């Protein structure tokens, strides 16, 4: 009989904690299976045939997502990386292979530059700063590009968003130049409150919009790209070529539909409470919150201590006090001498008052 694997310390301590501030409690395979089985009593009809190569429940999710984003249609993908490749490659077929993207954009930092290695695309940096580009910067670029990609929010710069006027100026410039806009909106779902517009308004002038099914929505996996019907028809060709036309995908799709019903309506509340949590954390000696206040329900939190010591303090606080404040810490970064963690305000965090956050943070720092 095989021995049961021992969970790592982070998994174990976060599971045993009575209270969590950032993120959600990790699940075992058994718990995840039980959560999926619980959806048999949900609003989605389960007596229809299982999907085959993208029909049935997959089309239900595609149409639902397209409606939420204000687009005619959408295509489901098993991974976000594949969705990004197909989206940009589809634009390359009609406009050209050069994409203007931020140096911190997800394809540049987290996808092993697949857009260049696999898809034959080339990127042009929009700006050298850790913020979204201004329209004037793009207009002044001395290297031509064919497609403008905007990551909303820009995760590696602190989940940053432009304001509405800045985004409108970028859309306007792209239209004047005759270049399509692709939104890397893996976390777009929670961006509407900061921009002060509905999701269809945010997406209206973008030719294609990528959204994640598991970031923010809590689905098991998957992503979608929404756009005009002809664009979606062509992107499905690239989905097939990249190996994304799977035989059956109903478990992940069902969890994504549940996320749209359960988590999407709660995101504005998470965004609002993130400001409360961030303000409470910012009072620690030497602390930095980026951005301040947060633009979404996620933000960066920096402390002037080595990451190893901060991680150890987090484990001890969960083990000894039943409180898990943060995920993992890492260094070095753009702020020398400081370590950073990403804070995600979800349902568990809504139970925390500012006073409770401050007190728990003081207990955390005392363990260093």
TrEMBL record:
Cofactor(s) annotated in UniProt: pyridoxal 5'-phosphate
Coiled-coil regions, chain positions: none
Record's keyword terms, sorted: Lyase, Pyridoxal phosphate
Entry annotated with the keyword Zinc: no
SUPFAM superfamilies tied to this protein: PLP-dependent transferases
Gene Ontology molecular functions: lyase activity
Aromatic amino acid beta-eliminating lyase/threonine aldolase domain sequence ranges: 57-296
Keyword Plastid among record annotations: no
Highest taxon in the source lineage: Bacteria
InterPro entries per record: ArAA_b-elim_lyase/Thr_aldolase, PyrdxlP-dep_Trfase, PyrdxlP-dep_Trfase_major, PyrdxlP-dep_Trfase_small
Family: Belongs to the threonine aldolase family.
Name recorded for this polypeptide: Beta-eliminating lyase-related protein
Record lineage: Bacteria, Bacillati, Actinomycetota, Actinomycetes, Kitasatosporales
């Amino acid at each position: 009989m095989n021995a049961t694997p021992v969970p790592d310390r982070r998994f174990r301590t976060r599971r045993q904690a009575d209270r969590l501030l950032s993120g959600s409690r990790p699940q075992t395979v058994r718990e995840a299976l039980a959560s999926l089985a619980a959806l048999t009593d949900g609003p989605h009809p389960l007596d229809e045939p299982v999907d085959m190569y993208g029909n049935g429940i997959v089309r239900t999710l595609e149409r639902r997502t397209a409606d939420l984003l204000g687009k005619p249609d959408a295509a489901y993908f098993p991974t976000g990386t594949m969705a990004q490749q197909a989206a940009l490659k589809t634009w390359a077929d009609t406009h050209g292979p050069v994409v203007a993207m931020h140096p911190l954009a997800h394809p540049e930092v987290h996808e092993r530059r697949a857009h260049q290695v696999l898809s034959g695309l080339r990127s042009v940096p929009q700006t050298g700063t850790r913020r979204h580009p201004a329209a004037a910067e793009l207009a002044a670029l001395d290297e031509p590009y064919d497609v403008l990609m905007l990551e909303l929010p820009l995760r590696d710069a602190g989940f940053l968003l432009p304001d509405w006027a800045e985004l409108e100026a970028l859309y306007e410039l792209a239209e004047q130049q005759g270049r399509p806009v692709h939104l890397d909106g893996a976390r777009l779902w929670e961006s509407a409150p900061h921009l002060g517009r509905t999701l269809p308004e945010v997406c209206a002038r973008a030719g294609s919009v990528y959204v994640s099914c598991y970031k923010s929505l809590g689905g098991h996996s998957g992503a979608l790209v929404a756009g005009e019907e002809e664009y979606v028809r062509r992107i499905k060709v690239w989905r097939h070529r990249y190996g994304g036309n799977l035989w059956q995908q109903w478990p992940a799709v069902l969890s994504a539909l549940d996320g749209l019903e359960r988590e999407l309506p709660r995101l504005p509340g998470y965004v609002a409470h993130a400001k409360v949590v961030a303000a409470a954390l910012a009072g620690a000696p030497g602390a930095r919150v980026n951005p301040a206040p947060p633009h979404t329900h996620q933000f960066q939190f920096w402390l002037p201590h080595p990451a190893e010591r901060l991680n150890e303090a987090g484990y001890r606080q969960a083990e000894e006090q039943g409180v898990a404040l943060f995920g993992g810490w890492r260094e070095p970064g753009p702020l020398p001498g400081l370590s950073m963690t990403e804070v995600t305000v979800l349902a568990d965090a809504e139970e925390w008052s500012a006073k409770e956050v401050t007190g728990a943070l003081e207990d955390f720092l005392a363990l260093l």
